[in-house]
Amino acid sequence: MNKEGTVRVAIIFLLGNLLTSVSSIIIPDPGPLVNATVGAVWPKPKFQTATGNYFLIDPKKFNILATGIICDILEQAISRYTKIIRDTVYSRLYHAHLVRHGSTTIKILASLRVNLTSPCEQRPHLSMDESYSLATNGTIIAHSVWGALRALETFSQLVTPHENQMLHVEDIYIHDEPRFPHRGLLVDTSRHYISKSILLTILDGMTYNKFNVFHWHIVDDQSFPYVSKEFPELSKKGAFRPDMVYTQEDVAEIIEYGRVRGIRVIPEFDVPGHTRSWGESHPEILTECQGEYEGHLGPMNPTKSATYKFVDELFREVHEVFPDQYIHIGGDEVSFECWRSSKEIIDFMVQNNIPSFPSLQRIFMERVTRSIMSLNNTPIVWQEAMVRDVRMPPETVVQVWLGDWRFLLSTFTRGGHRALLSECWYLDHVQRGGDWEKYYRCEPLDFSGTEKQKKLVLGGEGCMWGEAVNDHNILPRIFPRASAIAERLWSTQDTKDEKEAKRRLEEHVCRMNLRGVPAQPANGPGIC
Ligand SMILES: *[C@@H]1O[C@H](CO)[C@@H](O)[C@H](O)[C@H]1NC(C)=O
Ligand SMILES: *[C@@H]1O[C@H](CO)[C@@H](O)[C@H](O)[C@H]1NC(C)=O
Ligand SMILES: *[C@@H]1O[C@H](CO)[C@@H](O)[C@H](O)[C@H]1NC(C)=O
Question: Measured between alpha carbons, how far is 391 from 64 in angstroms, rounded to an integer?
Answer without folding.
Answer: 52
